[in-house]
Amino acid sequence: MSKLPFKEKERLKWQCRRGMLELDCLLEHFLHERHDHQTEQIQIAFRHLLREADPHIFHWLTAAPEDAPDKYRELLQLIRF
């Protein structure tokens, strides 16, 4: 668990701004409220998740988390709740 430097957190915050308001809210909430308290593995998975296409992320978060790649499943649970 590590707290990010300000510039890194701002970069991630910018990457959380997606084409869908719903994703913006979910991702930014996780970043601001939970990210710093997660393991390094979860933090890395979050950075990788932000590289995925919006429709995939939205589908995994809202309809079918079981369709997500294994590397994201724990992270998606944390974002959803």
Characteristics:
single chain; 81 residues; mainly alpha; 5 helices; 67% helix; globular
Nutshell version of this structure?
This protein has helices at residues 6-16, 21-33, 40-49, 54-62, 70-80.
Explained architecture:
With 81 residues, the protein is mainly α. The protein has one domain (20-80). The protein contains five helices and no strands. It has helices at residues 6-16, 21-33, 40-49, 54-62, 70-80. The longest helix has 13 residues, at 21-33. The radius of gyration is 12 Å and the shape is globular. The relative contact order is 0.16. The model has no long low-confidence stretch (mean pLDDT 93).
Q: Helical content, roughly?
A: 55-70%
Number of strands: 0
Alpha-carbon distance between the termini? 19 Å
Q: Tally the helices: what do you get? A: 5
Shape: globular
Strand content: under 5%
What class do helices, strands and sheet pairing give? Answer: mainly alpha
* Biggest pleated sheet: none
Nearest-integer average pLDDT: 93
Uncertain ranges: none
Integer count of domains: 1
**What order do the helices and strands follow?**
HHHHH
C-alpha-based Rg, rounded: 12 Å
